[in-house]
Specification:
The protein is 85% helix and 0% strand. By secondary structure, the chain is mainly α. It folds into two domains: 1-49; 52-103, no CATH class. Helix 2 (52-64) packs antiparallel against helix 3 (70-79).
Length: 104
C-alpha cells in the first residue's frame, strides 16, 4: 500500500508541475503576442511616415547626380527591405555625402 500512496502523490505532483509549466508557456505566448503587436504598430508608423517611393526618389536623385553607380543603386534598393534602413535613409536624405558613405 505504501507504494500506491507514493505513486499517487507523484502523479499529483507531476500534474501540478505540468499545469504550472503550461500556464507559464501560455503567459510567454501572450507576452510574445503583445511584443509582436507593438512591433507591428511601430512599423506601421514607419511606413506611414516614410514611404518606399520617397526612398526610391532620393536614391534615384543621388544616382542621377553621379554619386552612385548602378550596382550601388541596386544594393541600396535591397537595403530598403529592412525598416531600420528606411529610417536611416530618410534621416540622411539632407546629407548626400553621409547617405552615399552609408550605402557604400
Amino acid at each position: 500500500m505504501g507504494e500506491k500512496v507514493t505513486k499517487d502523490k507523484t502523479k499529483v505532483g507531476t500534474a501540478s508541475t505540468m499545469r504550472n509549466t503550461l500556464e507559464r508557456l501560455v503567459q510567454a505566448g501572450e507576452g510574445h503576442d503583445e511584443i509582436e503587436k507593438a512591433e507591428n504598430t511601430v512599423m506601421f508608423h514607419v511606413h506611414e511616415q516614410y514611404s518606399i517611393l520617397d526612398c526610391v526618389k532620393i536614391l534615384k536623385s543621388v544616382k542621377e547626380e553621379g554619386f552612385l553607380d548602378g550596382q550601388q543603386f541596386s544594393y541600396a534598393l535591397e537595403m530598403l527591405k529592412d525598416e531600420n534602413n528606411i529610417i536611416l535613409l530618410m534621416s540622411l536624405k539632407y546629407s548626400t555625402s553621409a547617405l552615399v558613405e552609408w550605402i557604400i
